[in-house]
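Action item from last week, closing it out:
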Amino acid sequence: MNKNRGFTPLAVVLMLSGSLALTGCDDKQAQQGGQQMPAVGVVTVKTEPLQITTELPGRTSAYRIAEVRPQVSGIILKRNFKEGSDIEAGVSLYQIDPATYQAAYDSAKGDLAKAQAAANIAQLTVNRYQKLLGTQYISKQEYDQALADAQQANAAVTAAKAAVETARINLAYTKVTSPISGRIGKSNVTEGALVQNGQATALATVQQLDPIYVDVTQSSNDFLRLKQELANGTLKQENGKAKVSLITSDGIKFPQDGTLEFSDVTVDQTTGSITLRAIFPNPDHSLLPGMFVRARLEEGLNPNAILVPQQGVTRTPRGDATVLVVGADDKVETRPIVASQAIGDKWLVTEGLKAGDRVVISGLQKVRPGVQVKAQEVTADNNQQAASGAQPEQSKS
């Protein structure tokens, strides 16, 4: 009996110790259970007006090009311009020897004078015969012959006048002038060279540089997308024309803005692209034909654009874009989206999201669909911190 009484207090102590230990474990597990809800950073989707731009490679080309060729044959007597200079339309560029053309012009004028004199005599004869018509001094046949001779003489005058005009034009062509204003290149002939009417080689080339064209290429898919968005009102253009800015090959923005003039009517079968042509003012002639540039095309204004930080968008093995969205019950769900274009460090989302949706942008590796989370709004000030903080978390997993 004494043995049992001595054992009972010890048993009680052990039982109490075990109970306290179990209670402590339960409290620790309860505390750990309260920390199982992961915290994630979210941004609330909103719509905002956004000017949509795209950057395309391009090349400059002259607004107008005139290849100067002789319209009469002869020897070049003089060149009247400095290579590489700016010239006005109508200025004399070359002088072809005019001697034979001057002689032909003078001869044609002489033939015209003779034809006019003959026509005058023929007309006087008709006038005299007309007064005698009906008398015994002249017959009807003689009058008709005189009238025909007068008409023939008048026709000869007309032909002589045409010959004079032809000779005058040929004489004028000995002075080779510029058909347009612009910058003239190098001369392909020198004084003393024999040139031929209609020859294949141009004497020189004049290019109008102000304004200047910029031809850019765009994929046919992007072109069709742009047309559809303009048609359904997703994008709106001011005055129906898209503005274009230019970046030169040295990375400097060209000071003048241009406008999109037209698009080609065919698709290049090799590249699947369409040529777009923009026009730019070029008063200083700082842009020259053939330069490679990059054109920033303002496609239009999207009044209800949705932008999502790029760190919140993931890709499936098939390349489809998805985001994690926190619902009203704070549970995460996967949402497929269409991310059409990168705008800085964000994606332009055209399908899959609406205003008010909460998109997870940090702590993505902590959660999976169906898990309840503690969503914390990420502001513009700490968005960069959230983006940089996401990388170490990914390395941990």
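Closing note: The two ends are 63 Å apart (CA to CA).
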